[in-house]
Amino acid sequence: MKLKSLVLSVSAVLLSGCGTMAKQQEYNADLIINNGQVLTVNADMQVIDDGVVVVKNDKIIAVGDEKLLEQYYAPKNIDANDGIVMPGMINAHNHLPMIAFRGLGEEGISNRLFAYFFPLEAQKLSRELIYNATKLGAIDLAQSGVTTYADMYYHMDEMAKATKEVGLRAVLGETVIKFPVVDAKQPYGGIQYAKPFIEEYQNDPLITPAYAPHAVYTVSKEKLQEINQLSEDYDVPVLIHVAEFPNEEARIKDPTKATSPVEYLEEIGVLDERMVIAHGIHLSQHDQALLKQADAGVVYNPMANVKGATGIAPAWDMFRADMRVGLGTDGPMSSNQVDLWRTLSYAANMQRLKHSDRTIMIPEQVIEMATIGGAKALHMEDEIGSLEVGKKADIIIVETQSANMMPSYDPYATLVYQANPSNVDTTIVNGKVVMEQRQMKTIQLDDIRQSVEAFESDIADFAKELSKKAIKSKSLMD
Ligand SMILES: [Zn+2]
What we know:
Layout: H1 2-16, E1 31-39, E2 47-56, E3 59-64, E4 76-79, E5 84-87, E6 89-94, H2 112-124, H3 127-143, E7 146-153, H4 156-166, E8 169-176, H5 190-201, E9 207-213, H6 221-234, E10 238-242, H7 261-267, E11 275-279, H8 285-294, E12 297-300, H9 302-307, H10 315-320, E13 324-327, H11 341-355, H12 363-377, E14 395-398, H13 411-417, E15 424-429, E16 432-436, E17 439-440, H14 445-470
Parallel strand pairs: 1-4, 1-5, 6-7, 7-8, 8-9, 10-11, 11-12, 12-13
Antiparallel strand pairs: 1-2, 2-3, 5-14, 14-15, 15-16, 16-17
Helix pairs in contact: 2-14, 3-4, 3-14, 11-12, 12-13
The chain binds zinc ion.
Residues 93, 95, 241, 278, 330-331 line the site of zinc ion (ZN).
InterPro entries: Amidohydro-rel (IPR006680), Metal-dep_hydrolase_composite (IPR011059), Metal_Hydrolase (IPR032466), MTA/SAH_deaminase (IPR050287)
Family: Belongs to the metallo-dependent hydrolases superfamily. ATZ/TRZ family.
Domain Amidohydrolase-related: 84-434
């Protein structure tokens, strides 16, 4: 394979010396990736050995075999060195700035959300911390081949700034919740906070602004309806946690006839195609049918759900029913990884265990879920999620030269069951090289090391005291 591409490049050099061919040699592309096994993740799941991907501006303009090298010329060429060339992965549910708290609260706290997460955030979150932690998280994502992430958090304008500095794509949902939080002194202040943020980023090439009502039990019916109306007016997504815990409907203050959170959302008129639900663990068949009917997105977070012992989502059933199912990690306190590599094997293995069936959710389907599936969950499948002409150039190259990647008979199996973040060699987002040969091109980890060390030392003592108190708290809602 390498020899063939060498011959082609030598012949290109020879031809460039020939006057009659000079016109053909003019650049008609910006970036060409060659000498890789291209996983297109298109509708036919086409794989092209010795494949070539051609990029111009922010888009893919050609995908095919080596013949494309005779047709396209670009100032930048990347030799994939026999690696795997694939769409960037999409982490469709995260709370990235919580990377500042990664590794805390691991002492076995039963009421972790209310007795630990929320008090920790109330005390330690700030605009500055969110900005710096997002930068750390975005570098982690870029280095591990995630090119798009969806997030529900606070000060989303700071997150947008940091994400753009690193060069990633993101769907950023401003959290709306019934108590005061870092960026809103009044309950539900996120609704107001979101407005200028949405207006500023509505047409941004990398950032899709969104609303993020926290959950059905932390946001009132009226506020969910108000957000639904605003999301329609602005045409932005609504990200929300749904059916993460059993019997969430019992926590809803304004009971309806609904016997599940999905039925409740349906009944109050807010379940529609702009909604992206995270978790969806405790879903009846009727709930799944309602989600499908609404054309809503669902994000499966297997690693966080197993770690939190919340259950196994019916992801395989929904995937088979051709629903919009993507993968997520949830926040860095929930699965401790922001990349999707470990999540890939969890995604498959937990479904096999749930169904007692080793034949389901084969690696090819897992990669589908991690790429085009995530794009579908976010309703971005026309833009990202596969390597096809006209799509945004969000591309990664995964090397296959390391010991853990050998042998590589089936690229999907290699990716799902062998690869780890350090195998990602190159990350390209919107046509721009963010990392090449493991070197970040946009921002260096050393640039932010001091700020990370500063927040770490500021948080450590408080967190230790908080965990002593939290460990005694048993009720789920106090
Ligand atoms: Zn979450």
